[in-house]
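Morning run. Coffee first, then this:
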Amino acid sequence: MRRNFLALLLICSAAGCVTPPPPVRAPRPAALFPPDGLVTQRAVLTARGREFALNGYLALSATGGRRLVVTEMFGQVLADVLVTPGGTAQVMRSSRLLRPAWIARYVAADMQCIFGDAPDAACPVERLSATHFVVQRRWYKLDLQIVAIQPGPQRPELFDEKQEAKQ
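And here it is:
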């Protein structure tokens, strides 16, 4: 009996601990979003244990420009950011909840991770489906779902650095 117990103990210690595999990140298919279009989205932002329901739309231009407007549930604009074809993020409008530096650093980066043509390998985004993405950073989590995609050219003034987006 003792010999069987020692053999079992030896086998168990040789096997080591079993750790669960890391989450599988679905590969990003080519042309997930149209080059010109309007993407309507809903998201839940979790920061410091609090959840914030967000709505927004993203205008995409075939020239590479992106204009993201994030609103709260009652329509107040929380963030308006324009990313130029060269990749420069310009905060057009901010709020008390989302400050300009935070928008430029995180909102623009998350937008590039999800909607960019060639996202950085270090992007903390997990694609759960073609319309569901989760961005997990140290300070927050963004659970984003695409509601609708309307292909087609967008108004040129959306990509003008001098104009605020009209809702």
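The beta strands are 37-47, 50-60, 66-72, 77-83, 89-94, 125-129, 132-136, 140-151. Good start to the day.
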